[in-house]
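Hello Y.,

Per our agreement to keep a running log of every chain we model this quarter, I'm adding this entry. I've kept the format consistent with earlier entries: sequence first, then predicted structure.
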Amino acid sequence: MNDSNSAPADIEGIAALVATSSLSEEEARARWPEATASPVFDRWLAIHHDTLAAMSVPEATPAPERLRERLLDEVAQRTTEKPQRSRAPWLIGAAAAAAIVVGAGAWVALNPTQQQAEVYAADVADGTLTITLEPGGDVARLELDDVPPPPEGTVYQMWVNTPDGARPLGSMGPGDVTDHTEVEVEGFRDASEFMITAEEGGAADSPSEPLVLVPLD
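Predicted structure for the entry above:
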């Protein structure tokens, strides 16, 4: 197995294994202490728990050792990439398939009948940003957790990059940002990237250096 401490860990994949009981949280924190200490890990863990709950997955028990090792190898192989976008096929086709349906006592492959929303997560200052977007959709749900508000006289301005250039999506002042801020924002169709900038004196016509930039491909 690859040494997952030799490269940035696949935080999303680790959280998926924990959520599906393929890996205990204690083992994950022992193997990847830096990755699991990140608030992004806790956010992905909550997202995967919510996804499994929405799919009506019953209580799971740990996967057999051979399958468990294959899943851990998969996570180790992905450590050269910093995860930004939720890989729904990875969660459903691999980690979720490691769940045992307790009532039936049989292995199952979970095949959702509806298209899954894409979820993106990234660090912002001392907090996290989560973007939930339906494939091909125009409206995204943005969640800011533990992100400090902008200084007085400054706003956080949201943008998307499109084939026609950067497009502003609105701004948030100091009074708009709390410990948990959740908003729905239009304008994501045809967007390749989302970013947040800090603009002094109010909204700008063009973006300054982004505080965070999230690829949406």
